[in-house]
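tokens incoming
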């Protein structure tokens, strides 16, 4: 029999996305899922949408837990205490699974005996519609510390492997800290290279230079904490600094490229306006030329009618009419 796998959706004011997240769990091909939805004091229409969606959910067990706002860390720690599955996966309410996501990760866990199965990412930028897929390397402890790969809560985790473990409070990188704990304890990690968690990225994501700088100090302080206990297994902090500096350089290069493209677009627009102005001017000149010709023709006709030849033509026309 397939063991129970708990999927925990954490939601705070994601009314726009929560239905898709729930339905992506309901549509899983894996047959034995416990769905736990934690609403962290939402003030939007999330609860109404959840209530409308739950009756059609096709999973073994489903439960909605409403609570006052506690934040993501306390909510995840509560879920770790209350889930009943042999494995678990977290899912943020603004993300979603492909239909075979759970079954594929579980099969890798069975085949390899790994405690943590981490996927690649399919990232969708909601504002632009642009998307891309990651290609993370196979797991190494050094790679996790250097952040050459990313293990997130959307990984499949064996529940027995996290005994007495919790997410640390007030940490931006609480998931990185959590999986570092597991790695230093010798837990086995495995990449699900052909499976992707669908991340929907919004404009308010933490991606500014200030957040990178702040995170650098945070990451190095986390490694310093582990260094006290695990000594030579922990990399030197300058690796993280170098990585962050490289990311900043990439960000700067990307911004410069966008500025270059913007300048080119402005020049094209300016050139286009100049061309349009020239075309309008040419048309106006042509109209003026035509009007001049018309005026000349009308004047010529008037002169003819006033001339003797013109009067003779009029007399002839009258004679013909008689």
């Amino acid at each position: 029999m397939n063991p129970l796998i708990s999927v925990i959706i954490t939601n705070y004011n994601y009314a726009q996305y929560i239905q898709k997240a729930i339905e992506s769990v309901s549509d899983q091909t894996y047959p034995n899922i416990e769905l736990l939805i934690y609403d962290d004091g939402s003030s939007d229409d999330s609860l109404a949408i959840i209530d409308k969606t739950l009756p059609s959910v096709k999973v073994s067990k489903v439960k909605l837990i409403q609570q006052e706002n506690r934040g993501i860390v306390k909510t995840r720690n509560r879920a770790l205490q209350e889930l009943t599955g042999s494995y678990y996966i977290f899912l943020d309410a603004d993300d979603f699974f492909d239909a075979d996501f759970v079954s594929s990760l579980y099969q890798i866990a069975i085949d390899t005996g790994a405690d943590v199965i981490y996927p690649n990412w399919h990232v969708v930028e909601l504002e632009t519609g642009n998307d891309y897929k990651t290609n993370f390397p196979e797991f190494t402890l050094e790679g996790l510390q250097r952040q050459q790969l990313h293990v997130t809560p959307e990984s499949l985790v064996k529940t027995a492997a996290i005994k007495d473990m919790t997410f640390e409070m007030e940490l931006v990188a609480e998931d990185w800290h959590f999986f570092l704990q597991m790695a230093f304890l010798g837990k086995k990690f495995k990449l699900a290279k052909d499976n992707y968690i669908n991340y929907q990225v919004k404009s308010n994501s933490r991606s500014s230079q200030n957040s990178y700088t702040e995170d650098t100090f945070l990451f190095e302080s986390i490694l310093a904490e582990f260094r006290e206990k695990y000594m030579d297994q922990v990399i030197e902090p300058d690796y993280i600094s170098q990585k962050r500096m490289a990311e900043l350089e990439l960000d700067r290069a990307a911004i410069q490229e966008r500025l270059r493209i913007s300048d080119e677009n402005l020049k094209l627009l300016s050139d286009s306006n100049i061309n349009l102005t020239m075309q309008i001017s040419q048309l106006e000149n042509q109209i003026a030329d035509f009007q001049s010709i018309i005026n000349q023709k009308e004047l010529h006709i008037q002169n003819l009618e006033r001339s003797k030849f013109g009067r003779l033509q009029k007399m002839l026309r009258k004679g013909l009419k008689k």
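note: The chain has one domain: 5-232.
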